[in-house]
Fold this protein.
Amino acid sequence: MTRFWMSRAVVMAAFAWTTPAVADVTAKQVWQDFKATYADMGIVMTATEEASARGLSVRDMVMRMQLPEDEGTVEITVPGLSLTNVGDGTVELGLPNVMPITVLVNPADEESVEITLEHAQTGFSTIVSGNPGETMNYAYSAAETSLRLNSVLVDGEPKDVGTAMISLNNIAGVSEIVTGAMRAYTSDVTVGSLGYDIDVVDPESEDGFVRFEGQLNDLSSEGEGRIPETVDYREDMAGAMRAGFGMAGTLAYESGSSEFSTNADGVQSKGMTQSGGGTLEFAMSKDGLRYGVGARDMVVNMTSSEMPFPVALSLAEMDLGLTVPVSRSDERQDFGLKLTLRELAVPEQMWAMVDPGGQLPHDPATVRVDLGGSVTVEQDMMNAEKMESLDQPPGKLHNATLNALEVSVAGVELTGEGGFTFDNSDLETFDGMPRPEGQISLRLEGAHALLDKLTAMGLMPEQQVTGMRMMLGLFSTPAGDDVLTSDVKVTPDGKVLANGERIR
């Protein structure tokens, strides 16, 4: 199985989730477009159709989707659905309250696994309107929808793995779909709450288990996507991207909490988490992949039979962002990585275990890193065959910049910035690596005071501290009271200098 199968599966699942109401202005047109849309996604559908006085009835509908790399199939059975001409140019879609879903994973030379799920809903409503062959709009809502684990078979033998359920409440959404050579869609959805309750056991262990339950509140999501008709993204993702394929989405929530407990190989753990809200972002197109995840006001409490004391953490802000180019181009493309951990704190009880005398500052710690640069991508990174056959990097690195570095902990502050360019024609000076040229400037405050306190506390021997002070003296210059600076420079002829002193 290649590393790209999951991205394809996510794409298929995302479109499958947002398109059940793709429709035209009559029940018959709704159903025809429904079938065509799923066929475009590689989903094989069978059903019995029957015209009714008010529209169309569909019975015994089965949708099968092949998992990538021939790993198995996903099968959704819909006992019946109705498509009703409302009479005002719109169509109402009706679905049964309960639908079974079967996931069959049957890889070669491995155990087959059949998972049966149950999708249930109450208060479901979808109204579709629009112009045939142009733009279609739909509005949908549900009081509650849930997905529950029913059974697991391994090579045909039932396994008692416990229970698992996820549920959503107070769902409301609107979407617009534009048909044509480039099918485009947008969606806007709100959910009152999302809850999950997982209590599964390890069938290979007598006492192994995982219990996890929690809830997210006041969720909102926005999504958009483009699917070209000329290229099948399931078969050629790189080609589809060049033809205009793309998708993007954001998910936000206002608060969340969870509790968990586990027992794995005799190691027992339990704990809880809280969050004051967060976001998740995702985008994929020829311009690259972009991921972002953030949370605020986080609290984590945890105990484990392998830890000598409980762990308790709080974090004012966590933010992670990643931008990666993936499409072949002769032009330079930007990449980036950002990480922020702001005001990471532990309670005084934990500080007392390592600093009972209170000699160290107990202020919350902060870490912030902002990296960027540019590369030339010489191979389509979404082409699985090419990536698996590569015996060298898929592109060239041209420059890398440390836009910001900030580390603050135990009274020590480290900051820095700078950058390097890279000469890809010189792979000898640095043993196969493109030769860098540039400079990074660093500033360190409070290091000697920390070393003094660690020595007084008996956490570091005097000899080791002396060695560390000598290293700081070699690579830095005093710039104030317990303030050190260091400029690390790589010259055009490959020399590496620290504050003017050659170290390579």
Observations:
- Residues 1-24 have pLDDT under 50 and may be disordered.
- The radius of gyration is 29 Å.
- The first strand starts at residue 43 and ends at 52.
- The CA atoms of residues 286 and 333 lie 11 Å apart.
